[in-house]
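Internal ticket #5521
Category: modeling
Description: The requester needs a full-assembly model to guide mutagenesis choices. All entity lines are attached below as received. Residue total reported by intake: 477.
Assigned to: D.W.
Attached entities:
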Amino acid sequence: MSQNKMEITKRPESKATSSGMSWDELLKLEEKYCSWGDTVHYVPHPNIFKSCKGSYLYDIEGVEFLDLQMLYSAVNFGYRNERLDAALKRQIDILPHLACQYLHEEKILLAAKLAQRAQATFEEAGRIHFNVGGASAVEDSLKIVRNHTGKSLMFAFMGGYHGRTLGASAITSSYRYREKYGHFGDRAMFIPYPYCFRCPYEKKKDSCGMFCLKQFEKLFETEYYGVINNKNNNCEFAAFYAEAVQGTGGYVVPPAEYFSGLKKILDSHNIMFVDDEIQMGFFRTGKFWSIEHFGITPDIIVFGKAMTNGLNPISCIWAKEKLINPKVFGPGSTHATFSSNPQGTAASLEVMKLIEESDFATSVPKKGKYFLSRLKDLRKKYKQIGDVDGLGLALRMEMCEKDGFTPSKKLADRIEEIGLEGKLSAGGKRRGLILDIGGYYKNVFTLAPSLYITEKEMDLGMDLFEEALKRALKELA
Ligand SMILES: Cc1ncc(COP(=O)(O)O)c(C=O)c1O
């Protein structure tokens, strides 16, 4: 272990934990008893957190961490949002649980609000089906697609992420997530996403003439490209799964006209469009659903995460009436014990009310514009920041070598670790910074701050980030 790492692990004894155990004692237990199959040990020295408020997490020593990822965009409305927490607490005192075969008021009201919102936005009648967790909603959407089309193959994007259950893994681009789990006969056909900073076709955005879309369209020109029978226009693929703005793929924002072009191609071959809003939904990008920026109507939408402000893992599917009406998707078509649980529906109903009484459509783009301008300022100072971009408060920053293009996972990792160590000093006191890394080369900071983040907090975030960046550059020089 390097001198540097020793220093990082050394923590003062803390009696601030509920158990009275120190940081080291707790980590020893974790090392022995927790599975490491999740993502905690992506960093060499995990921290232990104790409380949160607004845009901040606090570790067991009371160090304040500005959070710029907010539970992977699940806590859009800030930690310990009093109004939302109160709705959950109220529900716990009245009807904390109910088998999902029985009805409760909050489920009905929430479904109505969500379906009415979809109808107002897309001029399409539809219904809501509940499940738990994003990947489970994706699984159910796959059932709806299979049920409607009788087909099991899907298109999805390179760089796309839809979850880690078996079905969701089959349409998630990373082979790493499938590698150890046998053959995936229904693995999606992955199509290049319009990631213009690193165009897979090495084109330039201003002059490409949407080359990527033309390449996709070409697939349908002849049966010998393997996707369609041109004699009856029957495509072997049932649906295209897409995140309008890629999340785990690195908060990549597509050209404004891309999705309308894609949808035209899909419509002409009767291919459904499934919109995964699990990460970008609930105003992350400045619209309720990020697909609204692109003027198309999906057949199915899946969403979760921020629908309860991260208080409950409930998730949802909205589908057009023809796909989900009781005649085609009748009782028992799918089921999960906790699917429409009263705590989740009550919290989510309050989220919907909060949204209706707020103006996130104005505030989020305004805050996003300010944050992006600060990121652009920083990029001017450091060659190692290759690209910055964003839509609303979904922002990206690519860490690179000095050429400003070659991805530097090493630099991104070190900055993330320094943030998590909680030994930064910007703002005059000891602090930390919570960042998340995504992207095809794992070199992109995917910034998803609270939608209530203030300019002062954004400035603090930039100061903390710059301090971590300077330290990492010095160490790695
Ligand atoms: C776009 C997208 N789809 C699906 C998922 C899977 O959701 P969950 O982790 O709740 O299963 C995620 C999670 O990050 C996601 O970002």
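Resolution: model delivered.
Comment from assignee: The longest helix spans residues 360-381.
Ticket closed.
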